[in-house]
Structures are given as structure tokens and as C-alpha cells.
Amino acid sequence: MKTQLKEILEEVRAGSMSVDDALLKIKEQPFADIGYAKVDTHRKIRQGTPEVIYGEGKTPEQIIGIARTMLQDGQQPILITRLQEASAALVGKEFSNLDYHPASRIGIIGNWPEKDGIGKILVATAGTSDIPAAEEAALTAEAYGNEVVCRYDMGVSGLHRLLAHMDDIMSASVIIAVAGMEGALASVIGGLADCPVIAVPTSVGYGASFGGVTALLAMLNSCASGVAVVNIDNGFGAGYLVSRINHMEIKK
Amino acid sequence: MKTQLKEILEEVRAGSMSVDDALLKIKEQPFADIGYAKVDTHRKIRQGTPEVIYGEGKTPEQIIGIARTMLQDGQQPILITRLQEASAALVGKEFSNLDYHPASRIGIIGNWPEKDGIGKILVATAGTSDIPAAEEAALTAEAYGNEVVCRYDMGVSGLHRLLAHMDDIMSASVIIAVAGMEGALASVIGGLADCPVIAVPTSVGYGASFGGVTALLAMLNSCASGVAVVNIDNGFGAGYLVSRINHMEIKK
Amino acid sequence: MKTQLKEILEEVRAGSMSVDDALLKIKEQPFADIGYAKVDTHRKIRQGTPEVIYGEGKTPEQIIGIARTMLQDGQQPILITRLQEASAALVGKEFSNLDYHPASRIGIIGNWPEKDGIGKILVATAGTSDIPAAEEAALTAEAYGNEVVCRYDMGVSGLHRLLAHMDDIMSASVIIAVAGMEGALASVIGGLADCPVIAVPTSVGYGASFGGVTALLAMLNSCASGVAVVNIDNGFGAGYLVSRINHMEIKK
Amino acid sequence: MKTQLKEILEEVRAGSMSVDDALLKIKEQPFADIGYAKVDTHRKIRQGTPEVIYGEGKTPEQIIGIARTMLQDGQQPILITRLQEASAALVGKEFSNLDYHPASRIGIIGNWPEKDGIGKILVATAGTSDIPAAEEAALTAEAYGNEVVCRYDMGVSGLHRLLAHMDDIMSASVIIAVAGMEGALASVIGGLADCPVIAVPTSVGYGASFGGVTALLAMLNSCASGVAVVNIDNGFGAGYLVSRINHMEIKK
Amino acid sequence: MKTQLKEILEEVRAGSMSVDDALLKIKEQPFADIGYAKVDTHRKIRQGTPEVIYGEGKTPEQIIGIARTMLQDGQQPILITRLQEASAALVGKEFSNLDYHPASRIGIIGNWPEKDGIGKILVATAGTSDIPAAEEAALTAEAYGNEVVCRYDMGVSGLHRLLAHMDDIMSASVIIAVAGMEGALASVIGGLADCPVIAVPTSVGYGASFGGVTALLAMLNSCASGVAVVNIDNGFGAGYLVSRINHMEIKK
Amino acid sequence: MKTQLKEILEEVRAGSMSVDDALLKIKEQPFADIGYAKVDTHRKIRQGTPEVIYGEGKTPEQIIGIARTMLQDGQQPILITRLQEASAALVGKEFSNLDYHPASRIGIIGNWPEKDGIGKILVATAGTSDIPAAEEAALTAEAYGNEVVCRYDMGVSGLHRLLAHMDDIMSASVIIAVAGMEGALASVIGGLADCPVIAVPTSVGYGASFGGVTALLAMLNSCASGVAVVNIDNGFGAGYLVSRINHMEIKK
Amino acid sequence: MKTQLKEILEEVRAGSMSVDDALLKIKEQPFADIGYAKVDTHRKIRQGTPEVIYGEGKTPEQIIGIARTMLQDGQQPILITRLQEASAALVGKEFSNLDYHPASRIGIIGNWPEKDGIGKILVATAGTSDIPAAEEAALTAEAYGNEVVCRYDMGVSGLHRLLAHMDDIMSASVIIAVAGMEGALASVIGGLADCPVIAVPTSVGYGASFGGVTALLAMLNSCASGVAVVNIDNGFGAGYLVSRINHMEIKK
Amino acid sequence: MKTQLKEILEEVRAGSMSVDDALLKIKEQPFADIGYAKVDTHRKIRQGTPEVIYGEGKTPEQIIGIARTMLQDGQQPILITRLQEASAALVGKEFSNLDYHPASRIGIIGNWPEKDGIGKILVATAGTSDIPAAEEAALTAEAYGNEVVCRYDMGVSGLHRLLAHMDDIMSASVIIAVAGMEGALASVIGGLADCPVIAVPTSVGYGASFGGVTALLAMLNSCASGVAVVNIDNGFGAGYLVSRINHMEIKK
């Protein structure tokens, strides 16, 4: 943003832009306002980075409107998270290249970018029921240009199942640990791995699991160092963050 | 209790006890009322079983009064839990054979019973800070006639430390797993052991550990089957229960 | 597991197994990986012990796949908990010997093992509405080879109903106390019985019962010693644990 | 209040009171404003009913000021609840007839009224540590003219201790059940008694007792009908309410 | 119960009852065991007191079974609370005299008893949406032989509406205050009335009303003395308790 | 109210009103009692102020009844909040001029008043999903005679979108900030604006947003001074309050 | 801020400011960075508006450092909230004109501004213990140039005490309602007043008041329209907001 | 760990290690058991990586014992977190080169490693009171070989203060955002930065900040993508994790 500001100021100084135009530019440039939403058109500069639409609480019409604005702006792929099956059907009518994953409720319009991250991302789940959140994380990371390996049902109640994946754990550059119930997977992986671990608590469980709160709290209190946590069932957030980690750069 | 009732009824029938005496007996017999407390004098029948005084919220005078009543009734050893250091000093003046453990705040008056349980009890902790609750559990189990093995600082963040105690885990007849923070120890031990596991959440931790609530919830949601949980920092309760388990008998 | 490790090392030493094969064996042996799940095939060694499938959050196809892998491995009976009625219909098409209990949502494939526990297990409920959780506990315990006695509607608001079952309470080797609302049943039974008591809070109640949280908290704070607690509505967990208690053995 | 209003209006009509005086009277009459407090002087009409000062968060000076205003108005006895020991010393210097109870932190200035309630009030506690709250309830009820019987340490973990007091339970006209931890006393007494039961949860306990919240919730969910609950440790509130119940009258 | 025990003992002494018969009598007499429920048949002694069936979580078949056992025992009227409309239809087929109130989900079989309480009961609500819980309270109190006056929509946001009912408040012998949201009605009525006030928090509200928890907490913290609280939406519990209060008797 | 009281007293003095009539007048005047509701007819004095019906938990019949009473009293416009679509259909049959907004579930009967507030009200939302609550606030404020400007999707994750509306923020006389999730919009606007800011937390979000509780708590803890908060999704409350603020007057 | 930006751009255009200087100016101008704090020096433009230092968690040295920076910038009066007594002593040594209020823990350096608000602000408390929070609100409002009237101990349990202040309520332009316990004062005042009401929940109470949470929740759920809420014990926040309301202006 | 296992197996095969020695080695090697703790001696292989001692709940003697074991093993620097001032004095007597930071309660024994991370780490706080947690994070990151930049008091209530640090935000490779109260800093930075952001909620605040829970929840619900969260006040955890991120490597 600072760079843009400097350019605008330079133009003002050079007389090639009026003060009022400059003010207008600062205010209006980086998004398109379509009433119910302000679509960020700023990200396309960094080629290949998909913009994301959070589908929950939006009508299919709103989703289509936002996606259309983004495509007109040249952005792709477009990731739509929390996209209900019924909405997906309508969105799919508008965009025939929509790739919809019902379990993780993710829809993708457009093509995968090249995999250009530093290393491999491991997405591990404690149980079979945690797969949807894991899939959301994995698809997100892939959509942002990362190589992803998925290993499911590694829960700590059968430690040998987890230890059997020591190779995957040790060769990953970043790990996403997905677990509901007591969420102990994050602690055990955190204690074994020597790379960053992002934990995703899931709403899998019943009774005193309180819809994922127990897993969330347990992960926040992990006795293993080097574990950070995202919101319950927030596979997207984890996938997005590990992509940032996996694309770390030196800045001057 | 039923047996006692039958005996009283038999005496009533035989005319050796009046109806009013019977009523009185049913009401008054199994405890001694000393005003601020009703001391259970019924347990002495089963030789060697210590009675327990919960020290919190009782004045030293009340503790001494209850202990004196129990000793007059022939009960020993007497276990006093949650006994503050200051109170212990006063109680120790009255009962010179008081054996006081400041870390776990347990006081014991009298001699250990014979170790007559079925097998060995393992008391395992996740960290160094969990030792006081573990000690309360271990001392209680010993006071009830059990052989106890203690292994500390086995937390899951260094899995090799836990695996190094596989022998202890596999040779225990019952296990008490003591952990604060995210309480994952219970799940991992629960998945490895083939004996009953009683989990004790501790108040060790900070922030979102909420004084042990996170460990408690995590343990209740253990993905490993065969784990039950007692109150936060309730080493006594765990020690008492595993003693019952370790003294299981066939009944007719 | 240690024994297995020793055997593998012996074979390596004897030259009858290569180092790489040994590594592979350690990693791959104790389960079958079918993608969405890792099926534990290790338990069949101990004849008669049923493996369990937690049905919630699994598709009927996944349940069938896991069950098939287990049966191919020779395991039976298979316990499926939290099996929805609709899923049960599909699973029943695949396995004609499925025995489904709609109230407790338990499905069982295969035959009951012999009842070889130490004593009798009493499953007691406070009210009529607690029966499903109690049934889950009782069926689980039976599936693991235990004799089970069920007594329903013994709630403390009518103490004479509870006292009428003094015989059952005193003759049980382990007791499962199932109650919702204020969960006082666990405390009262805990005060009367001289055997281990495992409490199951249920989601029965309304308003400030918070879906079983009040019963859970009350049971954790039981003034009676010797009571441990499992998750809300976790009949299976209680049944599994009391079976372990009822099959306690001396270990060397 | 309505009666007073009518009288004022009658005087206005009769011309014996001006409109402005009437307005003033309606506004100013029923209390004395001493700046930091408005002392209710309205209750003295009903002879013998003590006024109450809630001591917490008030300076000794404020307490003395309020008490002095009440005494000038002829009110007595005066009940001061939650009166810290240090404050009591200062208040006692001002009012030499202060009767202070340190355990329940109640102070009383003036003489007991006659015991003119319908029947007897039973105050029962689960344990020794619940006595302070019970004492607050009992003293309050006595200060309001009721006959009170106290029975301590009747907790449900030793049911025979409770049953031994069946006489007290059956002969009470109202019962106050005081308990911490899991608060089961209220349910058991509620199931045995045939009179109104007011439950007082106490902050006795630790860990998941959450300073009395568990007992509070349990009592609110009592499976016994006819139990209502007051705030944690609110012995005063219970004593005040049962006095109202014990002084019930027919109104026309 | 004590009286019955004494009679049994007298018969044993007189030789007119054997010891075994006495034991049996003590255990079996006061209820009928129909498997899924133990029906209390003890209450019929006190003529006119209806027994209550808590309908939630019971099948229509179970409700009918319990009701039939009670009618055979001569009990009536029978109150069925939380009776779903669909269940009511089936129960009504069995008992043609079922009187069903859909808003409060109460069903009554049999005739009203005589109104023999000490005074009048006022049931007051804060809003229109609180009426179902109020109706449950009012019908319960009537079924137990009390005269009941209902005043709805008296919420404190329009104080004049509340003050307009000063007559009802001052002439009531007991008051039930029913309110959701912030539950301030209980405090205001508690400050105006000079009789016992039982508060019923309702689940009316949204957002931070947390299904009635806010009203519950507010009522427990009422600054007005003499208010006790029952569970959220527990109109029955309030109706039952005020009936006990309104039928207070001197006991010897 | 005081003014009315004085007038009544004056008439009593003048003899033009009897004491009993005066009493009646004080009690009955300011509302119409239609059984299930007391309709406030007092507000019509201040011309143009609409009365409000909270639709939740009321039957369509009750809503129609209340509205009819209000219209007979000359009040309009009538605002009906939380009006379900099905109810709106029935209400619309009775009042053909009903203007219903399905997203915000608001219905309005009658004409808008003149916009006579001090300045402009800005209603800003963090995201698209917050629009229904914002619309409820905006429509309410308009119905009470205010000029309202709406700006949607200004969430802090894209700060430039917010800064682009600096003009709107600086020119508003009062601001309503509507946000779910972490609710940071209130803090950022609170830090930029120099007018009163009323924050509306919404239930937008998932997992640890707890139905709006997180946004609510965040807004209450805003590091920006000058922000107050209403209940979750309470657009009406915010709209009503800002109207009061925007109609502030000097009083003598 | 926009105005400032425009001015800078104008200067850049005019050539009187270099692009780099402009960038610097935008970044550095509106505050002074003293390492541990960034002191806002921007507010002095609007004469008479005091800057505020939140004292909690700051060392006396930091407070003195910030105050000195502000005074050098010409700002006064300076309000220091949550200033501990010990800190106040040290701060008072540095600034001899410090005016410290121990009960409300507010310190003020410098002179009161002129009272230039629209109308009068009423600060009302439910009880004597709520006075410190009320005083914080009142002093803040006065420091920002408002006329404030304080009325204490108006709690709803004695409604006549509240009604006696109808004059104050009706003549206020804005009201701050301060209450702990059940916080009903906000609802009752909200129903009586026709001006904006800002509610301050206090931590006054015990047990289930949860340090002010109950009052907070009750106030958020007020059945009276037009009430907004600030954080628990946040007298400053309420005082600041009502000052903004009382200084409302038309903007162009 | 796998590598070590392979080496041991190779030696067993080669006959240079017996089976029993191998078993022993696997169990005992990677830590030193000193009774109350198991000190990890495994990490020294990776030169320069400090081991950490969590000081809370450990006696000074235990801390000294663990540190001594580590130093004997050649590990340094040693980081001691949550080290109380009194303990630090005792530890400092034993290790004269202890560098103790009282505000952040961190102690360091030994020399800083070389700064060899990928880029710069920015540690930003919302306020002055958040500095201790920030300092814990910064010192930890430095102890692990990272270049760290600290910027304090950038809270969103004064957005210009935050924007003034755009340079720091844009030039950081990883950011730690430290904030209490409503924690909005994480969302605003998350929306501006294009690198990973780790949020540290602090216990700064009062009332409904609940000791940091509000900030924690807000950060978990951040509307900005790419933000993960650690426990309340867990500066160490954040510092450790960002060091891992800043030392990301490609693995084969």
C-alpha cells in the first residue's frame, strides 16, 4: 500500500494527477463496490493467488455476483468455502467449470496454480470423521500452490498408527493437525515434529466436547512447543496460513 | 446395612429388644454425632480400612475432634486430606505420630495396612508440577493397602519418555494418569494400556487451561476407551477408587 | 508391544530378518490401512474381545468397509455405537446377522462371548428417560463377556425405590450409575456401595441441565468417595471400562 | 402503598393538604436519604420486623450511619450481613449491644422478636464446612421470629446419617437444605419431606465445583418437586424467605 | 415413612408379621415396578393429591402404562407435563377424559380437587411470550387445590402496567413471577410484595439471553429479599412448590 | 408521568374528580389490557413515534390483536420486529398496507414519519452476512424519523475498504457498527469517529464465535472509548437508541 | 484525518513539501513515540478535551512519562483511570496539582473545562456499593465538560426510592444507570426515561453474580428499548460516551 | 528418532550390540531421569538450540537441578520461563551468568546463538500493558537465533499509530501480534500483512475481558485469513513457533 501511495504522491508532484483525483484514487482503487460486498481486486497483482469467498450467510446470487466481479478482474482460481450443496448447484449453472467437493463444502472455479512452496505440507487427522475439515485445509493449500500429503485416522488412542507415519511427520515442512474430541493429536505431533504445526480443532465428538471447544482448549494448552491454533473446523484458515508459511521469503 | 436391619428385626421378634429401642438403634448406631460432624464409626468392621477427614474448611479443632472420636473407636490409620501446613502443626501437637506431607497436604495418623490388593498400581504424571496431586493419589492408595509405583514427567510432548515406561504401563493392574494443561497423557496411556485407567486432571497450566478445566474436558473426551475421570486435583478420589478396583471381589 | 519389538530384534540378530524388513514390520503390522481409516487388527490375539466402530460421522459405506476388514481378520463380535437407524438399515443389508437396538443405537455383528468376568455388573438409572444410555452400557459390557443386571428408575427423589434395590447394590462387583438432571444417583449409590462406581451423566433434563453438563459436574463433585465419571451419554465408555475392571488380573 | 396514596388523596380533597405538599409527600415519605444510602423507614409500621444492612462493599462509617438512622426511627433488631471482622470491631464500638458471629459474619443489634411463626424451620447441612451459610440462615430466621432447628453433616454419602434425622425432616414446616459440592442433599430431602424446601448452594468444594456453581445447578435441576433455590452462600436470603413462608397469612 | 416403619416393627413384635415379610414389606410397598418405571403408589393416602408424569423422553406407551398403574391405584387427577401434541393424541385415545393444553403442553386426567389452600396465588408474567410457562404453573397449582389469579404482560419496561396490579400483588398469599430476558420482574415484585415470591425464568429472549440463563442468573441475584428460583421454564416446579407453601401446616 | 399525576391531583382538589376516580385513573389510564398483552396507548401523545411489537413467541393472532388496538388508538407507523415470513403472510391479510422485509424480518404498518433528527446516522457492517441486522437497525431508525446512510462490507481485514468511507464516518452524527466474528469493526470505527458509536454484535461466524458471543465480548472490551453495545443481532435496539441520541433535547 | 491528508497533498502539489517529507509527515505527525507508549498529541486541536491514561498495568514511571509528554504538548486536564493509591502517591510527587479520588481510583491533573453540553447527565446507582463506578463515570463526564447530577441507592427492590427521583429521571438529557447484582435498575429506568440510557454493570454481588457478568447479561437483555451497555465497572467508558452524546452536533 | 532406531538395528545385526542392550538403549537414551523430571538431552545434536524450563510450579531446587543436568550435557543457552523473582535470586546464586528479565519473568543462562533465520520477526503490541508478554516472545525468538523488531502501543483505537508502522509490517517475514482487551490488533495486522501472523492474546483488561478469554476468542475468529493463535500470555509459545517458521527448510 505504501508503494502505491508513494506513486500517487509522485504523480501529484509531477502535476500529472490533481489533488482531488489523488484523494479519489486512494479511496476507490483497491476494490470494486457492488453494494452488498466490496470485492478486493488488489490481489491480482501477485499472479496466481486465488481470492476467497466465504459462502456461509450469502445468497447464491451474492456469491455469483462476487465471483463474476473477480473473474472480470482476471482473478482465478476462485475458492468458495462453506458452500452449501443447494447453492453449489446454482453457482455451477453459472460457472460450468465449478469443481465442488460436498464433504468439505468447497467449490473451486478455475485452474490450480503451480506448486511453488518451499516444502511439503502434511495434513493429518485423528479420525475418519475429521476428514471434511482436513479436506478443506488440503484443497485450500493446493489452491494456493502447495504440495500436500494427507494421512487420516492417526489418533493417539492407537499410537502405533501414528508412529507408522513418522516418515511423513519428519519429512513435512509444515503440518496441519486436525482432531476433535480431546485433540491430543496436536500435542503428540508437536512433540515429534521439528517444523511448524498448525492445529485445527473439529466439532467431532459429543457431550462435553461442546462442538469442538474441548479440542480447541486442549490444543491451545498443548504441552508441546511450536503449536498454534485456528478456529473450530477452520480448515480454510489453516490451509491459508500454512501456505503463507510455506511461501516465506526474505524481505529487505 | 440390610443385615443389620434383619438382626434388629430378629431381636424385636424375639422380644429381646423393644420397638422403641429398635427405632433408636436404627437411627443412632452407625455414627457418633459430635455436633459439627457425624463421625462414621461403621467402617471399622472391615479391619484396616482407614477413615478419611477432608481437611478443607474445617478448623484444626474440628479436625482434632473428629480424629479423636475415630481413634476412640479403634480406627486407624486416619487419612487427613487438604490439610494446611498451619493446621498440620496444631494437629501434630495433639497426635505426635502424625506423618505430614506438605506438597500433597496429606496427613496420616497411625500405621500402614498390609498391601493386599490384586496387583500393582501405576501413578504417572505428565510433568513435574503434577507431582503433588500424584502424591495424594499414591499415598491414599498405599494407606488403603496397595502397592504403588510412581513415574513422573512422562508428558506426551516427549513421546520417547513415555515409551521408555512401557514396562510399567503393561505390568500395572490399574493406572492413575495425572496431567494438567491439555491432559493428553490419559488418552495416550489409555490407548497403550489394557487395564482400567483413572484420569486426574490437575490445575497445572495458565490462561485457557482455566485451572484444570481444559484437562478435565480433554480427559472426558478421551478417544481411548476405558478411561474415567475424577475432579480436578482429586488425587485422593483416584487413589480411593483404584484401591476399590484393586480389591475387587466376587460377591454371591 | 514391547514383546513384539523384542521378537523382531531377535530375528534381526539371527539374520532371519533384514533391517529394512524390521523397520517396515514395526511400522505396518498392527493395523490395516483402508484410506479413510486404519483398522486395528491387533486385538484379535486376545480371542473374544470385540472391536468397536464409533458410528457417528461415518458414512454407511465407511462403516461397512471397516466391518468387512475386521471380519476378514477374524474379529467378532463387532460393536457399532451411535449407529443411526437409516445407516443400520444399509449395514443390515450387508451383514444379515446385524442385531440392532434402536433406542441405544447400538448394532452388533456376531455372537456374544462367554461371561467370564469376576462378578456381576449393576447398571442403575435414575429415571425412565436414562434407559438408552444405560442400555448402551449394558450391551457393551455383555459384548465384552460380563454378566449384567439392569435396574431402572431408582432416582433419589423417591428414596424407598432406591433402597428397595439394596440387594442389587450390595451384591454387584461394579456399578454403573446413569442419571441426568442433578445426577444425585451417583452420590447416593457411591455412599451405599463398597465396590467401584462409574457414573454416566445423561443429557436428560432441560433448562439449566445444559444437555447433561449439570449431571456431569455434580458427579465429578460427588461427596461419596470412589466414583469416577465418563462423558455425557457415554454408555459405551462406561461399559468398556467396567468390563476392564471386572476382568482385572494380576500381572507379573 | 396504595392505602397511603388514598389517604393522601383524601387529605388533598379535604383541603387539608396542598397539591404541592402531596407531591412532596409521595416522593419523600418512605425513606430517609443520607446521601450514600436511602434508609427504608417504612417497615417500622409492622412492629418487630428487623431491617437488614448488607455489609459487603460498605465502609464501617456507612454501616454505622445507616444503623443510626434506623435506630432513630425505632427499628430493631438490626441485622448486618457479610460484616467483616475488622468492620465489626468498629461497629461494636458504636453500638455496644452488637452481637457478632464471626463464622457467619452476621451482626445483630437489639433484641430477638417473639417466635410467632406457623411451625418449626429445619436448617440441614451436608457437611461441616457448610455450617457458616447455615448459621447465617438460622440466625436470620430467628431474627425474624421463627423457631429454628439445626442439623449438620447429613450429607448423602452416608445415607444412614440423613435417615437418622427423619423425625426432624417430617416435623419441620419448612426446610432449608444447605450443601456444596454436588448439592444432592436438596434432592434427597426434597424427596422425603412434604413441606416447602429452600436450597442454599454453598461454595464448599474445589476444582469443578466452581465456587458453588455445580451445587447451584444441581439444586435447580432437582428431580424432587417442590425445591427452589437461592444464590450461592445466600443463607440470609433463605432465612428471610422461609420466615415469610412460616408467617403466611390469608389476605382478603 | 417413620410411622410405617414403626407399625411394621409393632406387628413383628406382636408376631403378626414374620421377619422376612417385614423386610419384604419395607422394600416393596410404596411403589409398583413396571420395568421401565417405578410408579409411586404411596401418595394416594393423602386424598386428592395428584401424581405427576414428566412426559419428556418417555414414549406414549410408557406414559399410558404409568397412568394406567396410577388409576388402578385410585390416584387422580393425573398431571402429565411436557406432553408433546403427538403423544397427547395417543394418550387421549386411551383416556378419553384427558384435558390437554397445547401451549403449556400439560395434560390432565381426572377431576380438579377442592381449592383448600390458605390464600390466593398470583401468577404474573413479564410478557406475552412467557404465558406458556405461567400456564404450566397455574394449572399445576390448580390441580393441587389452589385458587390462582393470572396477570400477564406486566414487564418492568412499562412500570405503570405493573403498578396497576398493586391490588393483586398485595392480596396474594404467594406469588409466582415468570419472566425471560433480564428477568427484572422478580426483583420488582419481590420489592413490592410482603409474601413469598417464587421466580420462574423462561427461555424467552435471544442472543445473550442464552435460552433463559440470563433471567435465571438475574433472579438468583435479586436485590429484593425473599425470592427463590426454580429451573428455566419450570412452571410445574413453581406451581408444585407454591401449593406446598399455600398448604403449610403446623406439625407437632 | 409526574405531570399527569399533578393534573389528577389538581382535579381532585378542585373537586372535579373523586378520590376513587383518581385512583382508577392512575391505575388504568396508560394502556389497554387485552388479556395476553397490555398495549401501551400512552405514547401517541408524542405524535409520530411508532409503537413496536416484538414478534418472536407471539402467535399471528396476538400480533394482529395488538396492532388493531394500537391503530384504534391512532398510533402509526407500527413496527413489528422478528416477524416470521409465515406470520407476515397472515398479518398482511389483515393489514394490506403491511410493508414486510424478509431478510431483517421487519414489518411496518403505516407511513414513515418526517426525518427530524439532529444529523445523519451511519449504519456500517463488517461483512455481507451482517446485512440483516443492519437493515433492522436502519429501518427502525428511519421509522423513528432519522436520516440513515448504510455502508456494507467494511470489515477490518481490508482496511482500505474501511478507510474509503472516512467521509461517511466523519460526517455521521451517530454510528451503528454491525459485526460478527471478532467484531473489530467497532473498535476501529470507535477510534476514528468523534461521535457516539453503538455496536451491534451479530451471530455471523462459526465455531468459537459462539453465536455472536465473541463479537459481543470484543465490543464490550473495545480499546476505543465511546462505544456501547446492545444484545446480539439486536438491530432494533440500536436503531431505537441512536434515534433517541439523534433527537436529544435540552430539558429544563 | 482526511483534511490533514488533503493539506499535505496540496503542499506536495505546490512544491512546498517533498514527497519523502510528505510520507514522513503522514507517518509521524499525530503522536509522540516514547518507546513504551505512543502518546496521542492530535487531540489538543479541539481545545479543552482531556486525554486519558489507563493506569492499570502501567508503572508509575510510565504514567508520569506519558503525562509529561501530554503536558508538554499543552493538553490538560489529564484523566488517569484505575490509578492505584501507591502509584497516585508517586504521580502526585511529580505533579503537585494531581487531584486523586481513592474510591473511584481516578486522578486528574489540571483544571475542569467549561460545562458546555446540551443538557444534564444523571448518574444513578442501585446501591451504596455501586458508588465507586458511578463516581468514575461522573468525574469523567465532568472532566469532558458536562453538568452531572448523582443519585445513589435507587435500587428496584424499594421502588418508592426510585420513583421519588422521577424529576431527575425526566429532566436528564442522558442517563447512566449503574448497578450490580441483577442489574434491574437499567430496565426500570429505561422504561421510565425518554432519553438515551447507558448502563454500567458493576462487580457488586457474590456467588452467581460472577463478578458483574449477571448484571452485564441482564442489561444487554433489557426489555426496555434504548439501553446500551459498557464493560463491567467501566464508569469511564460510560462517562466518555454520554459526553459525546451530550455534545452531539449537526455535521455537514 | 527413526534414524537412531535404524542405527541401533544395524548394530544389532552386526552383532556389535546385544538385543537387551538395544532394548535398553531405545528406552534410556534420549533423556536423563532425575526423579522429579526427565531432562531431554536429545536436542544438543542440533547445535545452538536452547532447551527450555517452564518455571511455574517448580521449586528453585528443581529448576537448578534440571539446569545443571542440561549444562553437564553441553546444552546452552538455557531459557527459563515464568521464573518468579524470588526463584531467580536463588537460581542466580547457582549460575552467576543468569540474565533475568523481571517484567517478562524470563531467565537465560549462556550466550545468544547466531541470528540465522530467513528474515526479520516483528513483535507488535496493542498497548503498553502488553509489553511483558511481547518481551517473552521477543527474547525467546532471539534465544533461538532470530532477528527481532519490537513495536509497542500500536492499538487499533488510534489507527494512525498502527499505519505509521506500515514499513515494519511489510518488511517482516513473520509477525507476532500481542493484544489484550478485544484483541483487534491481530485482525488489522492480519489484513495488512502478507506474511504469517501468530497472535498472542494477553490477560490485559478487566470485567468481560475474562483474563484474556475475550482477546483469545476474538483472535480465533479473526476475519483476516492467515492468523493462528497461542494460549493467553503465551509469549514463549509464539516466539518458539515463529522461530520454527523463520527457520523453515526444504526436506527431502
Considering the chains and any ligands shown, give keywords for the structure.
homooctamer, 252 residues, alpha/beta, 5-stranded parallel beta sheet, 4-stranded mixed beta sheet, 11 strands, 39% helix, globular
How far apart are the termini of chain A?
16 Å
Uncertain runs of chain A with pLDDT below 50, 5 residues or more?
43-48
Rounded to an integer in angstroms, the radius of gyration calculated over CA atoms of chain A is 21 Å
| Secondary-structure element series of chain A | HHEEEHEHEEEHEHHEHEHEH
Assembly annotation: homooctamer
The percentage of residues in β strands of chain A lies in 15-25%
Largest sheet of chain A: 5 strands, parallel
Number of strands of chain A: 11
Q: Return the structural class of chain A.
A: alpha/beta
